[in-house]
Amino acid sequence: MNVYRYEENPLVTPASIKPHKEGFEVIGAFNAGITTFNGEVIMLLRVAERPVSEDHHTVKSPVFNPETNKLEILSFSLNDPRYDFSDPRVINQQGSDQFSYLTSLSYLRIARSRDGRNFTIDEDPFIYPSTNLETFGIEDPRITKIGAVYYIYFSAISKNGVGEVLVSTEDFKTYEHLGMIFAPENKDVLIFPEKINGKYYALHRPVPKSTGAPEIWIAESDNLLYWGNHRHLIGLRENKWDNGRIGGGAVPIKTEKGWLELYHGASKESRYCMGAVLLDLEDPSKVLARSDAPILEPEADYEVQGFFGNVVFSCGVLVEGDVVKMYYGVADTSMACAELSLQEILDSLVYEKSVISR
Amino acid sequence: MNVYRYEENPLVTPASIKPHKEGFEVIGAFNAGITTFNGEVIMLLRVAERPVSEDHHTVKSPVFNPETNKLEILSFSLNDPRYDFSDPRVINQQGSDQFSYLTSLSYLRIARSRDGRNFTIDEDPFIYPSTNLETFGIEDPRITKIGAVYYIYFSAISKNGVGEVLVSTEDFKTYEHLGMIFAPENKDVLIFPEKINGKYYALHRPVPKSTGAPEIWIAESDNLLYWGNHRHLIGLRENKWDNGRIGGGAVPIKTEKGWLELYHGASKESRYCMGAVLLDLEDPSKVLARSDAPILEPEADYEVQGFFGNVVFSCGVLVEGDVVKMYYGVADTSMACAELSLQEILDSLVYEKSVISR
């Protein structure tokens, strides 16, 4: 796969962003939703901020309080036996694989560009946590434009779990909060950009507990607010690069061959790559073909090293003719962009046996 | 709380049911959905069957194959190091808290009664697994009647996870399969029996993995097929009988005081009791009051002992004036019924402080 990484990469880094809260530092500006608006490329950044700490014996956790509308900062001693601090991103319950708190809080902030390479970052957040389901932050937005409306949806994190919240905007100044559309545990929702045979469709990625794996499902809707007819779409593949967890990445791209979904897959060792899956144009619950090898994998320095290294994670692309401009988070730290050929991606897919025999 | 247990309890036991499949034994007839139809009480039983095994070195797992429409039986050696067989209900992955297979397969079968105490069991299943999301069985049905239509919904189990499937019937002879309405991991859905201010509502019980607990949420819909606006409703309570997991039980009962939901709560030690929560009549996402102590707890022999003892688990009640006829599964084995006073349940509830001060 020919991949042209921009010379300007990384395009946005934590250092280029002024913290929103005094006494905080920006540790990530990544996993941005992508669209165009008024002739500009809009990068809706996930910005992760954490309280600055000079004390190496305590770990802090910022928590949004929806009743006071303020951020509160909890402090934990590294000696507290109730918690496990070994993962810098989370404060885990000791002896459990569940987290109790996060060490940073993410919100959504706009970066704008005329050329898609040089970005100016808005002074203030665009979307900040606002409900009791967003107290630990909001993460990894995607943007689907339908008519004049931009639907923005993202993971909402709280002690009650991780689910997906929908908002809508027409001007990227104000927005309407439309509630949680996928209940915990779910993230990596991707709403298709048009109705297909009278229904809206969305990919989603439940994380079941008792049995099952973090895999990609598909659901349908008639109003974007309420979703049902959940069906399992594609799963992990043993002995491949996507044997740990998978989830949708960019808004599905309509091509002559089918709906092309650029998805992320992680290995069991948490190395995140991008791959592709092709879905039937008339019935996107039918899988036609899938990448054997990744179309993008962490190779550049800024992809391999960072807060959480070895990660490329796209939440949105722009397609211009045969050119796929894939914007993607790197190492849970910064944003980058690479161009790929749409035709080359399509040609690389391995078709399902049942499709070949048709 | 005054509880009148029927003298006929248990009303239905595995011994009273002829296995559907040759070479199988019925090990459970429990957690039935309840309604009335044509002047009879309908108990829609969850019947669990397993292959008879004389060989004590192997464990068998029945799995429905949706492509052949047949049941297949897998055999596992008790010495297989990949699996943990210590829980008789499941075959767990070794070193994981996830199950890989179940040791029995559940389906739904009708028991009918004129007096609500003496039941005749249909010869054949009413609803049997039929899709790739039901390969490990279907469990714990509830029934909500809206107009002339009986909506039946149940947990669907497969290697992809545990979600909730909806079907509808008007005659309890044929039904229409309406797909999975709540994606994994979710069960214990309870659809309210009428629209409230123009919306359908349902309780549901996600089981999140990364953070959060098995607690009760509420969602809304305009067509019963697609659900959204998910909100967290009530949680576990430390140092109480419901500190392990909770989930909806019976279809919510409309009273002058509010919607009364009889729910199940388990302790961390998996002792299952029934409690009650009262929701606002006009906005069921508002919690008004909740049981401090259980309204029913496992005390009778048939509740304490069985395949999985110390369990009372109601999936449906009949209300006649002040009498709540609570049908409930006992010890994951059989069905029983007890009568309680609706007024006494309402009087026992402890109101939220914010409600008292209104």
From TrEMBL, chains A, B:
GO terms for molecular function: glycosyltransferase activity; hydrolase activity, acting on glycosyl bonds. It comes from the Bacteria. Pfam families: Glyco_hydro_130 (PF04041). Keywords: Glycosidase, Glycosyltransferase, Hydrolase, Transferase. CDD domains: GH130_Lin0857-like. Belongs to the glycosyl hydrolase 130 family. This is Glycosidase. It comes from Jeotgalibacillus proteolyticus. The lineage of its organism: Bacteria, Bacillati, Bacillota, Bacilli, Bacillales.
